Amino acid sequence: MIECKTSKEIGGMGHSKKRKEDARFIQGKGHYVDDVKLPGMVYMDIVRSPYAYAKIKKIDASKALAIPGVLAVVTGKDLEQYNLHWMPTLMSDTQMVLPTDTVMYQAQEVAAVIATDKYIARDGRDAVIVEYEPMTPVMDPFKSLDPNAPVLRSDKPGKTDNHIWHWEVGDKEKTEDVFSQADVVVKQQMHIPRIHVASIETCGCVAAYNKVENHLTMYMTTQAPHAIRTVIALVAGHVGLTEEKVRVISPDIGGGFGGKVPVYPGYVIAIAVSFLTGLPVKWIEDRSENLQADSFARDYHITAEMAGTKDGQILATRFKVLADHGYTDASANPSKFPTGLFSIGTGSYNYHNAYMEADAVYTNKPPGGVAYRCSFRVTEAVHAIERITDIFAREIGKDPADLRMQNFIKKEEFPWASPTGWSYDSGDYHAGLQKAMDAIGYHELRKEQAELRKQGKWMGIGISTFTEVVGAGPSKDFDILGIKMFDSAEIRVHPTGKAIARFGTKSQGQGHETTYAQIVAEELGIPMEHIQIEEGDTDTAPYGLGTYASRSTPTAGAAAAMAARKLRDKAKKIAAYLLEVSEEDLEWEPGKFFVKGAPEKAKSIQEIVFASYTNHPPGMEAGFEATHYYDPPNLTFPSGAYICVVDVDPETCHIKIRRFVAIDDCGNIINPMIVQGQVHGGLTQGLAPAMYEELIYDEAGNILNGTFMDYLVPTAVESPSWETGHTVTPSPHHPIGAKGVGESPTVGAPPAIVNAIVDAVSHLGIKHLEIPVTPYKLFKELKAVGYFK
Ligand code: CDP
């Protein structure tokens, strides 16, 4: 550290008092990380690079340190002394915590300022003078592969280019054969733009290291507290922060959507400073920092091809991807899946030949590749298949609804072995699309469209019928940094029949407190109001991989049912003992066991639980607790049929979504109101990249829309009145037949919207529009086809 004042100088308090404050916070409910206040707490702000690619010549902190209340300025060189200047990413790449010599993207962390209050920390940040020697950045992923491009990751010994990895799946030769013989082949280049998770709460933490007890409590906005604890122990174990000495508490989180899975440098710097000073360190990003520097999502350049017959039979697909990962691969994917679950991109259709390949490259952009409300690249895959399916339908002059109905996998064909290796568990795609078509009045709309066209008015109808893949995942294939992706539930029922259930997942607003309580209540017959749900504290919750990619219901939800069933088995034994009958003589109805044929001879679950502490059968373990670590046998495959209707103004190119019908199938529904809420929010986040959001950089590496003034996050004002419904095709392998739902609408909505806009202007010769489809982009396309002069 360049300079650091002691805790005494700033009135720091003794550790015991800090611990008490700590406990008070933990007991409180409804707190966000920014609400955490600990005695002696100091604040951190971060100096960020104005350049996308530059050498750091000098960092002059003298003016900052002269400000009263500024305690320290931390640089990469300081962290280097403890070997904490680099950290691993979740994809086993490496990422700078603070740079020692080179910055790799605009807004990258350069130094951290520690001060007694957050305003002083910001003044200090502004007073740090950094001298840079700018270099020409690589912003275009295609140019990144030029032999003349600078090698961005020269820190990696032997690295001679900017290529990160190559991935492929499917049968290349067979697929090529089908393509070479097919009557119809369509091809489309498309970009799924770089966007950002814009959750209401930004990222932040309070790192509170207790020197006396050699113990770190890390309050942080994380979707995966246990995984973070393990990562901290792996990164900082060598300085004494071993796993039992680390407690991660993730309190209420204001939205995560995948963006709160990665470990950001700010967290690590805060831990390092707290470790070195013994002071609690708070770091909360501001809105622009969150947008400019945290992990991005998407940024896939896809060439999609489809081969088929003239009468509309799909025969094969071929996708080629160039993935822009910024300066490091910091995706939050399961280890074996560098493109996440992109291989779901063969869609809902019955054909047997597919080949997909992807190459990832480094550029001078922020790293990431987060699973933004998406099972790791499913959004990109669904966009590709649902756009190319529409392009194929248009090429052969077939209605896109008819073409989909013709090609859907039939409900009796499940489990379906996809050409890229998935085994779809269940689905009824025909029923879903039919329901959506009936709800929206599809055939009448087509007639209306023809009529309107005669009057020079543009209306379009777009369909997306997607298959999702959620619930990562079965341990044979799914791990993050080697940790298998099971999840867990622990249920403790107290003597009076009231319960606490704890989970390895972490809600960010999805309502786990309600739905998990419902599952336990349903299985045990205890009223849900008597069940307290807790997540997010590694000292109390069982180990789990956290909440993202709609995995909570398929994994921890299943664990809740399984743990409750273990308890029901125990309850049966106790009931048999109390009623002096054999277990075979008992029947269960939610809330009690009774003797077959004599329902008055019964023991309620509350009586049974009480007996487990007071009068349990001899030889049986006392108490009423169970834990289950659920390793799913397969993923779950929810699906959806979405139809969007747009009206486009032929003069201004203004696009108005007239109607949007979303029929989802997430198997058995636990809570219809929560599912509807999930779908509403998710659809709005699907509207976002379709019409509004894209992070744009210029050639010099400047982000051109780094604030919410320019980065347009849609709100209720821009959203149509979403019309939702569902079909129910239970998952055959999930204990309660449920599939995940949270991400489905975000995944399924963009192609429905774009297909509708393209449909509205297709009679003018437009075959494809890149997202986000803004009025200006549409104007330019219409100009290109000669509509506007
Ligand atoms: O992992 P995450 O909680 O984001 O996603 P999810 O498993 O899709 O669940 C989102 C919310 O919807 C949770 O509260 C679920 O319990 C609920 N849900 C439901 O009520 N019924 C389903 N079939 C699926 C999810």
Write a structural description.
- Helices cover 29% and strands 25% of the residues.
- Helix 9 packs parallel to helix 17, helix 13 packs parallel to helix 14 and helix 14 crosses helix 15.
- By secondary structure, it is of the alpha+beta class.
- The structure holds cytidine-5'-diphosphate.
What general outline do the C-alpha atoms trace? globular
| Rg measurement, Å | 28 Å
**Low-confidence parts:** 1-29
The first-to-last residue Cα distance is 62 Å
Strand order within the widest beta sheet = 3-7-1-14-11-12-13
Supply the helix-strand structural class. alpha+beta
What fraction strand?
15-25%
By DSSP (H or I, 4+ residues per run), the number of helices equals 18
Largest sheet: 7 strands, mixed
Mean pLDDT: 94
State the share of residues found in helices, binned by percent.
25-40%
Give the bound compounds.
cytidine-5'-diphosphate
Number of strands: 32
Q: Any key phrases for this structure?
A:
7-stranded mixed beta sheet; alpha+beta; 789 residues; binds cytidine-5'-diphosphate; 5-stranded mixed beta sheet
Please render the helix and strand layout as text.
Elements lengths: L14 H13 L14 E7 L5 E7 L1 H4 L4 E6 H5 L5 E3 L5 E3 L5 E2 L5 E7 L2 H10 L1 E6 L28 E8 L1 H10 L2 E13 L7 E7 L4 E6 L4 H12 L9 E4 L15 H13 L3 E4 L2 H7 L2 E13 L5 E11 L28 E9 L16 H19 L3 H8 L8 E2 L5 E2 L4 H12 L1 H13 L3 E10 L11 E2 L2 E2 L2 E7 L5 E5 L8 H13 L6 E5 L17 H27 L6 E4 L2 E4 L2 E7 H10 L10 E6 L8 E10 L6 E11 L6 H21 L30 E4 L17 H18 L13 H10 L5
Helix pairs in contact: 9-17, 13-14, 14-15, 16-17
